[in-house]
Amino acid sequence: MILKKSLASRIIIPVCMMLLLIWIFFPIYFMFISAFKNNVEIFSYPPDLLFKPSIEGFVNALLAPASGQTGREWGEHFMNSAVLSISSTAIALLLGVPVAFALSHLKIKNKDRTAFSFLTIRMLPAIAILLPLYLMLQSVGLLSTHAGLIMVYVIFGLPWIVWLMRSFLEAIPHEVYEAAQVDGASNSRILLTILLPASKSGLLVSGVFSILEAWNDFVVAFIVGGPNTMTVPVALGTLLSERIALWNTVFAVGVLNCIPALIIMIIMRKHWARALTLGMVA
Amino acid sequence: MATKRSGLPPTLYILPAIFYVFILTIFPFGYLIYMSLFNWHLYGGVAAAFIGLENFVAAVSDPGFQKSIALTVGYGAFLTVAELVLGVGVALLLHRESRLASAVRMGMMLPLVMTPFLIFMQWKYLLTPGTGPVSYVFQTLTGDPYFAFFSAVPNVYLTFLAIDMWQWLPFVVVVALAGLSSMPREPLEAAEIDGASYWTTLRYITLPLLRPTVIVIVLFRLIDSFKTFESVYLLTGGGPGTATNFTSWLIFKTGLGIVQNIGLSSAYAVLFLILILAISWTAMFAMHKIRGK
Fold it and tell me: Which residues 39-68 of chain B have a CB within 8 Å of chain A?
């Protein structure tokens, strides 16, 4: 029995874990090394594992004038991704944090119903609602504009912010709120000066997930966006309509595109599970 | 309670957001229903004509739509069960103190932060004949230089499944791990004192305690599988034939593709949304009941 147990824990479990690591890392490994191949090397087949690293892909991505058929620079696409995700998150925070506050500490009617209607947004496939949004934005002249895209991204950021902030604000005992109220502080003051400073990591986590929602989006930007708003994923898509894909450029852009998310991941690793389920699993 | 002296009434905290959601979600949904009542083609110069429920009759009796819904739900259900079983297994494996386990736990977060579109491009590269490393491995194993990852059934489903596993198994694992570590200790300790074996404890204590977490996992994975769009756009275009004509793709293709039949596409979307709302509200209700206890 002891022998059996030690066999399992000494050999089988580590081997399984190694296999998992390999499974997770081999695609990323190939993406990473492909980003450092030159324009010729990238087409060698079988793919070389050992080669002289080159930054040609990154040069293509950052300095060459045009990406695919769009005739725009990659810097512009990165700028679009950043502007759209940050400004939509700012608006979503302004709208969503008060809701989270009301749901966690104030007396309002239909709390559960309100909370679950925000959660429902998280469930909707964007594509099903994009057709009417497309026509609505078109009729008010916001199709293919930054403003139009931001308006839509706010919707996708809201469920993260409402649910995650609610979960963080609920963790603050209600007595704290009551004590401040007894001292004569108004609701807005309690929120701004007591509750929010105490849930900074909640703001960080919910804001980050709202940003990622827009940063990683393809469908919305693809359908209601235009040449001026083209984000990195949409621009990557246009590269594929060329006959020969320069995979080193694709992956150089890809590596750069992942860096912000990677930093975020490391900062927030403690909150990960809670965030992914919008606070439903601690 | 003495006189209330706080400035804003509590409802004012939720009204702006509710109003915003109304304008950008409920209103478009109403507009979608409205659109579905017309024979409406975006281009082609034909004016939209009111035809009542004809689009819905056409949608329900359309074998293409039926097949697409069956594919979306069937694939989603299979994927959810497979990822749930495998993911909980992996979580049990990783639920221990070791440097290797924590390395795997960290690595597992990578697919979750990567842009999904990039993930699909990465797999496209890996699987492209004459370019990709995985394609090369299959060439050496099978002798076929053009191994049909995407152009044959059932290969295309297995490929989609593998890619989805790479992308989303980590989600199941991370959430299940959180569920495992937030579990009350007393029942587990009691079982240990009683001398219960690992498997007995797992079967009668750990897994039942994990039930709320499992509901969350099932809800999110099932609902998110219905969003399958980018992978179809990038990898198969709905093919081979109509093998990967997932409903999200069908709605897009019918409304904004070559046909641009707005009315029919809207009817598809309305029916699809009703299905999704029914599933997610059922799951949310179940979650709410468990939470309330």
Answer: none
